[in-house]
Amino acid sequence: MALPKMQQALAVGGVTLFAAAAAASLATVSPSLLTLEEACRLLGLGLFAIFAWKSRSLTPWIFFAMLAGGELGHDAPVFSANLKFLSDIFLRLIKTIVAPLILASLINGIAGHGELKQVGRMGVKALIYFEVVTTFALAIGMAAINISKAGVGLTLPAASGTLPPAAPMHWQDFLVHVVPENIAKSIAEGQILQVAVFATIFGIALALLPEEKRTPLVRLMESFAEVMFRFTGIVMYLAPVAVGAAMAYTIGHMGASVLLPLGKLLLTLYISLIAFILLILVPIALWAKIPLRRFVEFVAEPATIAFATATSEAALPTAMENMEQFGIPRRVVAFVIPAGYSFNLDGSALYLAMASLFVAQSANIHMGWGEQAMMLAMLVLTSKGIAGVPRAVLVVLMATATTFNLPLEPMLVLLGVDAVMDMGRTSLNVIGNCLACAVIARWEGELPAYTEE
């Protein structure tokens, strides 16, 4: 639904004024100008707050909190560095939702579907889609860093510590890891893919039972999933506070000036993320006849949450709920999005390809096209295990460096701005998974007619 012109003007004017004043504050040290810039930033925030109030929607408030948190972190860094507990509380509540929601939704989606052949067909289509799109992401990441050469000539700081070597990751290890040994342990540790594997097998077994024995448990799972969605709705009221606290902590703890020495790398990453959206995701959406404006409306909230918290899990319940509201049946949402969290992390894959070559460039190691092609082929496999453990992007990156005899010390430079880069790649992960869900639903003929308007 289009916004009134007055609300559009408030939103655009507020963001533009805030961004211009923020950019000016980084470019000058004049006290008189700083006072004017602070006033402009606060005025911009005020205009956007009016827009958020008039919109009566949670998404503008989340975006406002992200800007306000950045301003607070810049103006009061000591105070802001103590606000991390607010975002931690929100993330803890979200983590209590994710595994039970996936478990109940996926079991209900499979057992209540009635046609296991269609479930299997949908799974094959999803895996093919994930593989193709992830490969494009890796290729764009490699192309971007080859063009910008952000690591060439970079002066590495004196290492204050060393990174332990990482053993190369093999596909056998990944396959073993995705199989749960204890479902309670998998839920407690937030192992989404293990929960999804258990739920898939459980759902298939439940679907094979006679209807009179299957129906009570299917109804229980359906009711449980509904409760978890309501739980999500309650928790999401805390999202603006958590998002603002997360941004304030990031800026207050690191400082905005930390971005300048590695500005070329950050610019390369964000330009490549935008390029991936415009060159890959938008054409896919047009090919699948996904209504872009309507899709953006429903994906904006989970993408903003993912950007501010740099955590895919924080956006997962909202992404699933919004895709259902978009018109995708729950059985498709419950199957595709959880699987995509391990097999379709487009932003993380793009970053891995870029970071691997950045390490080589910063160490003055030339890698030919043949070696880069071999690295891409390896990342096609190893990137699928990114969601397995916390900070798994770094684990995969270290394993890649070990395999290709690259030094580990340049990764210390990446760690300095990893939080800022993680925001962009996590947001793209969420957008890519939501689009994958819509494409698979279209492929299966499951999107209602009104989503084409």
TrEMBL record:
GO MF entry, a single one: symporter activity
Membrane-topology annotation of the record: Multi-pass membrane protein
Any Gene Ontology biological process: dicarboxylic acid transport
InterPro entries per record: Na-dicarboxylate_symporter (IPR001991), Na-dicarboxylate_symporter_CS (IPR018107), Na:dicarbo_symporter_sf (IPR036458)
Record's protein name: Cation:dicarboxylase symporter family transporter
Domain of life where this protein originates: Bacteria
Glycoprotein keyword on record: no
Main location: membrane
Subcellular location: Cell membrane
GO cellular component: plasma membrane
Keyword Cell membrane belongs to the record: yes
